[in-house]
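Long-time lurker. I teach an intro course on protein structure, and each term I like to show students one example going from raw sequence to a predicted 3D structure in token notation. This year I'd like something fresh instead of my usual example. Would anyone be willing to generate the tokens for the chain below so I can use it in lecture? Attribution to the forum is fine with me.
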Amino acid sequence: MAGTVESRLAELGLALPAVVPPLASYQPAVQSGAYVYTSGQLPMVDGKLAVTGKVGAEVTPDEAKELAKTCALNALAAVKSVAGDLDRIKRVVKVVGFVASASDFTGQPAVINGASELLGAVLGDKGVHARSAVGVTVLPLDAPVEVEVQVELVEA
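-- Reply from a regular --
Happy to contribute to a lecture. Here you go:
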């Protein structure tokens, strides 16, 4: 039976995807004490990137914001894979977003708002977090956006 968080996802018309398999030698998420740290999550859907390129060139900021939401959904799936239940999330502590940016693009915070807004919509006050939004030259597979999340869990 789906818990409160997954019910909220369904209310928003979203479904938790399968965990994206690692592209190299790492785990999608690890738990240390009460914290789960995700690896950087790309906007993969059904095993592939729908869009590639730089934000502000081949990818619009609005497209990239939607891709950041996908990254956040993939991060929630990775959290569930180690926590067992998304209702164990006490709070999202930190989000780090990377935006593959054209040289003159400076709207990284607005792009990563896609991830932040999704976490807030799904988790309410538990989704409020500290954040960094960083512009980079290139990301794996030429992805436009990558997001990693740190969450604190309540005891099982």
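Some talking points for your students: Residues 95 and 131 are 5 Å apart (CA to CA). The beta strands are 29-32, 35-38, 44-45, 48-49, 89-100, 130-136, 145-153.
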